[in-house]
Structure formats: C-alpha cells, structure tokens
Amino acid sequence: MNPDRTLQPATPPQQRRQYQADLRRAQADFLEAEAELARLQAAVNAFRMQCRLKIGRLLDEYLELRSRKQALWTHLQLLHQAEEFGIPYDEDDPFWHGRDPADLYDDLPEDDLLPEMDGAERDRAAEKRLFRELARKFHPDLAPAGAERAYMTMMMTAVNAAYSQHNLDALRDLADELDPALVVELAEIETKEIRRLREQILKLQRRRRRAIRRRRQLRQENMTKLWQKARELEADGRPWWEDVRQDLLKLIDRRRTEIGELETAVARFE
Predict the structure, then answer these.
(1) Which residues have C-beta within 8 Å of that of residue 197, sequence separation ≥ 6?
(2) What is the pTM of this model?
(3) What are the distances in angstroms from CA 171 to CA 61, 161, 223, 238?
(4) What is the average pLDDT score of the chain?
(5) Cα(207)–Cα(213) distance, rounded to whole angstroms?
(6) Dihedral angle, C-alpha 81, 82, 86, 88, nearest 10 °
(7) Dist. CA 128–CA 168, nearest whole Å
C-alpha cells in the first residue's frame, strides 16, 4: 500500500457529490459564455470583411487624405511658431524636433461613424488604471511569507512584463487570475480530491469571466456598434452601405478642400 494514501483523509460522499455538481455547473456556464462570445465575434468579423469589400477603397482614400491634412496642419503651426520666435523654420534643425504642435487633433465628428479597419487603438489611460489595480492586488510586499507571497511575486512579475509591453489584453487577463486569498484557501484543503475539484471549478469560473469581459469589450468597439446600427437600419429597409458610401464621398471632398486651403497657407509662409 502506498503510505502517502493512508495520510489522505477520506472525502465524505456528500461533499464529493456537491463539488462534482458545482463543477458541472461551472462547465456549463463557461461553455455558454464561450459560445456567446464566438457568435458575436463571427458576426462582427463577417461585417468587417463586408466593410473591406464594399467601402474599403473609399475608406483608404479618406484615411490617406486625413493623414495628409494632419501633416500640413502640423507644418503650418510650426511655421507660425517660427514667426513668433523670429527665427526661420528648418525641418532639419533639431530645435524643431519633438515640439508639441498643440491642438492638432483631427476633430471631425463624422470620423466616429466610420469603421476602424485596423482595430481598436490602445488605451494608455486604461493601462495605467489597470496596472495600479493589479499592483494593489498582487504586490508581494502586501503578503505574508509563504505560498501567498510566492504566488503574488509571480503574478506581479507577469503584471510588470505586460505593462512594460503596453499589452492591455494581457493585463485584463491577469485581472481574472486567482485572488491571493483563494490560493491560501486551496492550500488549506486537506483532501487531495476536493482540492483538485475546487481548482477545476475556479479555473472554469476564471475562463467564464474572461469570456464575458471580452464579449463586453467587443460590444464597445466601433466596428461592433456599426454592425448593430447597420443591422437595425437594414431591418427597416434602409440602405446602410449606400449611406456610408455617400458620407465618405462628402468627407473626402471636405478633406480635399481643407488640404488645398492648408497648402495655400503654407505656401504664403514659404
């Protein structure tokens, strides 16, 4: 007989059945959350492909014009600053490198109605906020010695690595990891079978929370909101794609006019 097995307390049948039932519920809840996320991702990805096929060329043209306008506007502001300083502007002079052109953000509200073909932009403010929350949760200086401190040290190392890489998704995933108090709880479970069942339940619960969070994030993305709007309009028989095409053509004309005005203003300085 294996001597280690004699040291393991027996698991009461009622307790085992309860944990097994909890595990089945956790599995079902996780699979449901994963299925809902997969359905939404598939629908949004199909819509993204439609955007590329139906209005991709116009959108690329518009984004190129927007970038051109931004460059001209920045150049014009630097020329204004050179005039105020009473010195010539020289783009090769290090004095002008890295200067803040101030208030050059492209502010046309119509831009919010267009699909972001390259995905959502990284939110630096969210990174900082989440990093502070995770530091309060996992900083090893806040833990007593032992398994809890070892776990928090490991987690804080992962948090620092994700933050240094500006990996917001990784930080969000780390927020779903086990609370240090649960690590202590698991360590104190004497019965190996119950500890294993409890670990499986907690793992499935974390994965479910992660799927729910990702679905919530996806619903907030620009592309998903446009997909929902297009679906509503098309259900009413309104041609959403044609409306967007016409809006893009109007925006392109506006950008070309703005670029012409900026080129004239720059030429007067130069």
Answers:
(1) 16, 19, 20, 22, 23
(2) 0.63
(3) 35, 9, 23, 41
(4) 79
(5) 10
(6) 180
(7) 9
